[in-house]
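Quiz preparation item.
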């Protein structure tokens, strides 16, 4: 009987270690999820700033073009190139926003899985504690 209790106590200590390990992993997943959310926010803020800056540049360029008496072809070509560069920048930022959303979703799934693992580990630990308490009192 004494060896049985010692075995149960050892198993319970192992289960406690597993629960602690699962909780640490869960915290790491939560941090990853928070980091992904912050990345999304910063990327969207960068997108908005870039978009506003590009609009201002285009407006200023258009003013210069319309203020002159004659518009040269080179000026129109440079304005078109400027627009294309702006479109490329915005497209790249939108792709990074999409990637950030995907990272956030995967981090969220990983966090949910870690929550399930923690719950399972805690249930196993509680089961062992109940067995230990029932055997000791009988």
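Solution:
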């Amino acid at each position: 009987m004494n060896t049985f209790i010692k075995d149960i106590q050892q198993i319970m200590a192992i289960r406690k270690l597993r629960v602690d390990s699962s909780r640490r992993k869960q915290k790491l997943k939560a941090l990853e999820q928070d980091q992904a959310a912050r990345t999304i926010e910063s990327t969207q803020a960068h997108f908005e700033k870039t978009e506003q800056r590009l609009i201002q540049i285009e407006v200023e360029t258009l003013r210069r073009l319309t203020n002159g008496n004659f518009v040269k072809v080179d000026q129109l070509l440079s304005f078109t190139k400027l627009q294309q560069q702006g479109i490329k920048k915005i497209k790249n930022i939108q792709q990074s926003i999409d990637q950030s959303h995907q990272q956030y979703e995967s981090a969220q799934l990983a966090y949910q899985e870690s929550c399930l693992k923690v719950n399972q580990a805690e249930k196993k630990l509680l089961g062992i504690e109940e067995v230990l308490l029932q055997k000791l009192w009988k």
